[in-house]
Specification:
Chain A is mainly alpha-helical and 324 residues long. Helix content of chain A is 85%, strand content 0%. The radius of gyration of chain A is 21 Å and the shape is flat. Chain B has 82 residues and is mainly alpha-helical. Classes of the chains: A mainly alpha (324), B mainly alpha (82).
Chain lengths: 324, 82
């Protein structure tokens, strides 16, 4: 192929920008729609609380929107920044950065919609609790946004680090794998964290006196749910910062992309599953505070079992990077 | 047949515009549909508040639409600006 490097860099930047915004628009819009739906149901149930519900809907939607604004920022950078094309590696970095941010925004956008919707429903039940509910919703949805921030960090590192002194092959595969690990890995944790925060907003509105244990266990459950996104971030840091020996063979490149795919896809299931577990545990604690120690223990044991497949994915991707 | 470098960049921009708008249209469609569905249920339960509920639905949908508009902006930029 006789094109110069700059041509391929532009091609990759446009494709990366388009994928960032295309995928990045998905999650936040679904989450915001869910919030609006719950707000409408809540207003029809208690029209007197309209003002509080409406405000809470807009605040919650604004938090969910942040994930897609990250994607917009990355897409604009990719479209309008002039990347100096030192080597073909720039092609891989700009494409991987776009893909990473786009995929990473899906889970957080949908997840942040769940607590906002539950807060709106809660205000129709307990208009007096609106401050507590708003605080709880904001804490919960802030934690939901962390996976999309991991993806943002990875794509900024990809965009603004100079990789040109590395050997082209297999570094291109490592950078692509890094984008996939961090982007795909953010989907499950974002969604799962949202489920937990939803249960805690519901719990606060049903049992206002149990607000402290419900918020604490929500944070504990969300922290465990985030672990798989952190594995994804870890794998992508290893892929970005380890120096690989130059090679002409295809198999080392395939191993590095495979490592990114393995950790990224493998993180989705545990993230969602641990979210389900903590959701039910938080709902149970809100109903029956005296069972808090049994429920917390059972939640952590269940999450540990759900985590196992995420750990298998981590092991396989580390083997793909360091052993084979 | 020789393809110019500028041509393949243009091709990528067109492909990207399609992908950006196509993928970006999924979320707003689903989300706004959920909002409208609940609004219909809510008005059915409480028809006296139809005006208030319609307003809430439209404001909520407008926020949900924003990500679709970001995709549209990126697609139009890819088509006509870059």
């Amino acid at each position: 192929m006789g094109y110069d490097i700059q041509t391929w860099v532009n091609v990759a930047a446009y494709m990366g920008g388009a994928l960032a915004m295309g995928f990045g628009a998905m999650g936040a819009a679904i989450g915001e729609g869910y919030t609006a739906a719950e707000a409408n149901a809540a207003i029809s149930r208690s029209p007197r609380a309209t003002g509080e519900i409406f405000k809470s809907m807009l605040v919650g939607q604004a938090v969910a929107e942040s994930a897609s604004i990250f994607a917009l920022v990355v897409a604009m950078i990719l479209l309008f920044m002039n990347f100096s094309a030192q080597s073909y590696l720039t092609v891989a970095t700009v494409f991987a950065a776009g893909l990473c941010m786009g995929l990473g925004a899906i889970g957080s956008g949908i997840g942040s919609g769940f607590p906002a919707g539950a807060a709106c429903t809660g205000m129709s039940r307990q208009p007096g609790m609106s401050n507590r509910l708003t605080t709880n919703m904001l804490i919960g949805s802030a934690v939901c946004q962390t996976p999309s921030i991991f993806a943002l960090v990875t794509s900024f590192i990809l965009l603004f680090t100079n990789f040109s002194d590395r050997p082209i092959s297999p570094t291109w595969a490592a950078l692509l794998g890094a984008g996939l690990a961090s982007g795909l890995g953010a989907i499950g944790s974002g969604l799962g964290g949202g489920l937990v925060a939803q249960a805690s907003c519901e719990g606060v509105s049903r049992q206002p006196e149990s607000v402290t244990p419900v918020t604490n266990i929500m944070l504990l459950g969300q922290a465990v749910t985030q672990t798989t996104a952190i594995y994804g971030l870890l794998v992508s840091f290893i892929l970005m910062f380890k120096s690989f020996e130059a090679t002409d063979a295809l198999s080392p490149c395939a191993a590095l992309i495979g490592a990114g795919l393995c950790m990224g896809i493998g993180a989705i299931g545990p993230g969602i599953g641990e979210g389900f577990t903590a959701q039910s545990a938080v709902a149970g604690i809100a109903r029956n505070r005296s069972a808090i120690s049994e429920l917390t223990r059972l939640m952590l044991v269940g999450q540990a079992v759900a985590e196992s497949t995420g750990i298998y994915s981590l092991v396989i991707s580390l083997i793909l990077i360091f052993v084979v | 047949m020789a393809i110019e470098g500028a041509d393949i960049i243009q091709a990528a921009a067109f492909l990207g515009a399609g992908l950006s708008m196509g993928l970006g249209a999924i979320g707003p469609g689903v989300g706004e549909g959920m909002a409208a569905a609940k609004a219909c249920e809510a008005i059915g339960r409480n028809p006296n508040e139809a005006g208030l509920l319609t307003r809430t639905m439209l404001v909520g949908q407008a926020v949900s639409e924003s990500t679709g508009i970001y995709s549209l902006v990126i697609a139009l930029l890819l088509l006509f600006v870059v």
